[in-house]
Amino acid sequence: MKAKSPIFWPLTGLLALVLLNAVHDPGFLKVTLLDGHLYGVPVDILTQGSRTMLVALGMTLVIATGGVDLSVGSVVAIAGAVCAVLLQGGHNLAVTLAAAVGAGLVAGTANGLLVARLGVQPIVATLILMVAGRGVAQLIVDGQVIIITHPTFDFLANGFLLGLPFAPLLVAALYLAAHLGLRRTALGLFIEAVGDNETASRFAGLAAARIKLVAYLFCGACAGLAGVLAAANIRAADAYRAGENMELDAIFAVVVGGTALTGGRFVILGTAIGALLIQTLTTTMYNLGVPPAIAPVPKALLIIGVSLLQSDKVGRWLGGLFGKKAAA
Amino acid sequence: MTKTTSWASRQLPLLVTAAIFAALFATAAHFYEGFFSARVFISLLSENAFLGIAAVGMTLVIFSGGIDLSVGAVIGFTSIFTATLVERHHVAPPLAWALGLAAGAGLGAGMGALIHFFRLPPFLITLAGMFLARGAGFWISTDSIGIGHELYGRISGYEWVFGPVAVPASALFLLAAMLAGYGVAHHTRFGRNLLAIGGNEQSALLMGLPIGPAKVGVYTVNGLCAALAGIVATFYTGSGNPSMGIGLELDAIAIVVMGGTLLSGGRGHMLGTLLGLLIFGTIQAAILFDGRLSSWWMRIVVGALLLLFILLQRYFLRRK
Amino acid sequence: MPELLELRGIGKTFPGVTALAGVDFTVRAGEIHALLGENGAGKSTLIKVLTGVHPADAGEIRLAGQVIRPGAPKEAERLGISTVYQEVNLVPSLSVAENITLGRQPGRLGCLNWRAIRRRAVAALARLEVECDVDAELGSLSVALQQMVAIARALDTSARLLVLDEPTASLDEKEVAELFGIMRKLRAEGLGIVFVTHFLDQVYAVSDRLTVLRNGQLVGEYATADLSRLALVGKMLGREVSAADFTSHAAPPRAAASPVLAARGLSRRGAIAPVDLSLSAGEVVGLGGLLGSGRTETARLLFGIDAADGGQISLKGAPVRIDSPRDAVQLGLAFCSEDRKAEGILPNLSVRENLILALQGKRGLRRALSRSEQEQLCSHYIAALRIKTPGAETPIRNLSGGNQQKVLLARWLATQPAVIILDEPTRGIDIGAKQEIEQLIAKLRDDGLAVLFISSEIDEVVRNCSRVLVLRERRLTGEVAGAGLNSESLMHLMAGTHEG
Question: Which residues contact A19 (CB under 8 A, 6 or more apart)?
């Protein structure tokens, strides 16, 4: 099942879903230019999905090292809270952004130290911040939903650059930067090596613990920035709801996008497609009139289906069906 | 060469948890007037009864090295499901409860089968289960449904009077569930097999233990516990609510971990879960008593305690 | 009267490899029977067939005259064949009593009877004359005691045949003696005991008869008292003592150049007693010994994989600290592990990525090799080592074992090390490829590398090395060089006998 490009299945899935929508509602694919800004459902999907794409980018590296980060949703909430409080206090945008992303880095450091240096299981280690983080976010805003009125801040999530929505452009730029950083340096190779066979990597002279730490740091930073975008999107810091279920969506995006949960080879383009797939799924549900509370059900079915497809047992069944030879 | 080890040294994590509970309770009693009373102690059990019942099932799952993130959603589903059956379809409550328990057990069995036969990661599959259950609950109704059936009123109003103390029905359910959980975990082959599987699955296989039935079975039992918790929750609140239990699975996991059970499986005691629940309840009650502390401190303290316990567990394991 | 256990004509093949062919194996009641063989001999496969883990493809098994076909470990246990594995396969987090009775605890109506459990455990241990607190956590006991518990569990099932797979690997002398006492007691009770081991002294200390396997075939069955140590080693290695003399192809030992790598008193508890060794540039030094003698353990200490309890390593005369493989690589060392599956290959990554990994690790994160540089390296080594692969981008797990080994070798050569440790570099490789690798080793030597060559094939060691250190049962037992270096002298050292 792996002979094709790794993004074949997620891309097919996405296109199928888009087609389904287009058939059901011809206006689905319509994109119009109004006041020099691009509008339309596809634009909405890109904009709304950009935050999940961003968190999923960081999650990709963590999963590639064989771990997982359940705390990203809480980090999104914390980052949003930090923004609201600092902006309200009159600090300038640069400092605010640095602090928000910094909060994400602190979270990443904590997770990374627990996993890489103390050897705690990733689920357990990141569970701590998942539980406590939301409380920290609420503490920062003192339980209030703080409204943020700051035009430049607002622009980050809701603005347009050359007619295109800014948030997806920003995230796309980050994906590009990540790709360059991972492939122009040896970091991408090291992460894949550690995830594929940590012992062999160590024996080959790699500093496995340090590499894992970097992955968690990056994931925290991505979550921090996503928190900024989330807060900017609703022009408020909602410590109760911000980032809700984001860890799940991010993990789904990574897995659907072709990176195995056990670690090793990762495909960040696949992650982006996976995130768009999930966002399109959410939009599809909305368009079909499915109450938003029920929308997670197809997500659940999707993840079970993808897990089964990726599992060894089913791979062997299917291989047998199509008469393929088992890999050496 | 007989080297006797004392019960104390073997159950050190349990004793540490008990000590921490005692310390917390004593601290709260010191600061808050009226905290040190039987009524408050019993409220620790009755206020969090459905969390505790869910934690019983969760303890068994974690013993076997697995995890179940769907329990909160199953609580929500069962609560709205049974409420709808009783109030909208005039089904006799015991039948509604039986159906609710069956649904919870069915979901558990399905997840357990996927996890065991296809070797899929438990946290991902039970995550999907959570989405399914939550979505199903909201599909039944997006609003809560008040239950006026007199049987519910009688049960929720029931109290067992024991001298100067009155123990509410929810606390009684909790204690019964804890007792049953203790019996299963420490006095049945099924329970001991769970610990063996969590401790070293490869060894358990070579020892000829029935891994498949045990794994599918534990998720089924856990689903049953979660459904029971959902029913108890409806007694407690007098209504069915699909939003009930959101995030509860994290609290359940935290309670189990604080009770000294290792999240990777193989080690733990059901009594620890009870103590973990008491710790959780104490913090909650203390925050309530204080009036000045906001509810979010609950999250932070639980998270900090989780960190403490995890570090302690690592330290003790290193020593061995 | 039929023997207790008779295996006749047992054959077992796995895809691509014949593990066993036409093997006979007989155990009598009331005897301790040793099963011996080097790597790839088929010992573990035979045990797995016997205990029901794998079904045999050919042949039959008779237990007390009855033909049996155990399909699962539990079935074999029911039939009376109990096994204690090298890795104590119990649950360390549960108590001794539980481990002994797990799966068959006494109890009624599903409810366990803890008192009966404890009593049964105490009785099972008493049969072995072992006393310990049955409520203690298994993991807190010494490995020796854990093994006793495993044996007690195995016997708790009215076993008639007890298989002990490498039981003494982690025991000290006193504990081995205690184990032997128990084995003798069980033998006196009429049990048949299969004792799989590679410690020759122990074979002679406790076994009545022994069977030797080699390359999946039966070499022979002997009464222990009738076979000399030297002859035994010869049978295991597949060569007669009176073989034709072998000329060494290795270069004559160089005049004592100052060593590139030197270790003094290097030791680790449970792994290897203090060892001195030195390697000079342009020489191939062999580390010989039977399986389990401590060769790989020594290599792991040199390369920083395991922490040494004592001793000092110096590089070019200056003392160094090697705390991790990373340190070792930075200092110019290379280590080609014997377990390529677990410690060598990154199975899902390409040949190219596997090949450049160590070099890239040495260069660090930022100085990444460009794609063209990587491809150049690949084509160079693919040609030089004649690696058979569809291309450099093929996932390495698609290559045959031998070619995987070559890629790993290339990985290390690419780092241009000063010292390279090769642990069983030709294991699982065909003859043609073996020769290529031996020529390569000679070339490395001529280029000035210091090579530590670990192999269990005596011929190979003699052919390639100018100097050989022999390990026996975790300690250095001797060094041979120059004219005295031949298979005979090495075998004597390995067997622990003296010439003459």
Answer: none
Query: What whole-number distance in Å separates Cα of residue A299 and Cα of residue A249?
Result: 9
Chains in contact with C, counting 3 or more C-beta pairs less than 8 Å apart as contact: A, B
Rounded CA gap, C55 and C13, in Å? 10
pLDDT at C214: 87
Structure confidence at residue C154 as a pLDDT band (50, 70, 90):
confident
pLDDT in tens, B149-187: 888 888 888 888 888 888 888 999 999 999 999 999 999
Domain boundaries, chain B: 13-24+36-319
pLDDT on residue A327: 37
Q: Which of residues 165-184 of B touch C (CB under 8 A)?
A: 183
Pick A202's closest partner by Cβ from C325, C362, C367.
C325
CATH of region A8-321: 1.10.3470
* Residue boundaries of the structural domains of chain C: 5-237, 242-332+417-500, 341-416
Which CATH code fits C242-332+417-500?
A: 3.40.50.300
As a whole number, mean pLDDT of residues C349-374 equals 94
C156-167 burial code (b ≥16 CB/10 A, e <16): bbebbbbbbbbb
| Domain parsing of chain A, residue ranges | 8-321
Are C135 and B207 inside 8 Å of each other by CB? no
Among A186-195, C166-175, C453-462, which range has the highest average pLDDT?
A186-195
The full DSSP string for C317-382 is TEEE---SHHHHHHTTEEEE-S-HHHHT--TTSBHHHHHHHHHHHHH-SSSPPPHHHHHHHHHHHH
Which residue from B160, B194, B191 is spatially nearest to B175, judged by alpha carbons?
Answer: B160
The per-residue pLDDT for range C240-262, each reduced to its tens digit, is 544 433 344 566 555 556 789 99
Sign of CA dihedral A189, A194, A197, A199: positive
Q: Which two tokens stand for residue A87?
A: 């902006």
Is residue B300 scored above 80 in pLDDT? yes
For residue B2, pLDDT over 50 is answered with no
ipTM given for this complex = 0.87
CA dihedral C85, C89, C95, C96 (to 10 degrees): -10
Tokens representing A258? 């072709």
CB nearest to C342's CB, from A190, A199, A205: A199
Chain A positions touching C396 (Cβ under 8 A) are none
Measured between CB atoms, which of C73, C90, C131 is closest to B2? C131
Among the four given CATH numbers 1.10.3470, 1.10.730, 3.40.50, 1.10.8, the one describing domain B13-24+36-319: 1.10.3470
Residue with tokens 């693919």: C382
- C373 and chain A in contact, CB less than 8 A: no
Please give the Cα distance from B93 to B24 (Å, whole number): 40
In degrees and rounded to multiples of 5, residue C266 shows phi and psi of: -70, 125
Chain A: touching chains (3 or more CB pairs < 8 Å): B, C
Instruction: Answer whether CATH 3.40.50.300 is correct for domain C5-237.
Output: yes
Distance CA A148, CA C277 (A): 71
- Give B210's Cβ-side CA count (13 Å radius): 10
B132 neighbourhood in chain A, CB within 8 Å: 296-297, 300-301
Distance CA A90, CA A96 (A): 10
Between helix A208-234 and helix A72-88 the angle, nearest 10°, is 50
